[in-house]
Amino acid sequence: MVTLADTFDRPGRMADRFSRAGLYRRADRGGYEYAAQHLAMDAFNRGDRAGYRYWLRRASRFDPDYLTQMKRFETRLPHQRARERGRGRPYRWYD
Predict the structure, then answer these.
(1) Which branch of life, at top level (predicted)?
(2) Residues 24-71: pLDDT tens digits?
(3) Is the model's pLDDT at 6 over the cut of 60?
(4) C-beta neighbour count of 76 within 10 angstroms
């Protein structure tokens, strides 16, 4: 499902089961470990900080690095998408 969801340009809505967000959500509920991380990045790119924290918390079930990232809760990230939205920052030693 995540591979299919990655082909869509727009995130869509969670309620739409065949949008990118809907497919990620179904994959997360099915136990796919990277789906919550994808949803966290989508929320960050939309400017939804509460959604970003929620999906990071869900992603931390599989990878404890997300707990560390959630403790830092950075509102700026080093990737290109964040720079395009005015939320970029330089890379740090822990990136």
Answers:
(1) Bacteria
(2) 888 888 888 888 888 888 888 788 889 988 998 888 888 787 777 777
(3) no
(4) 13
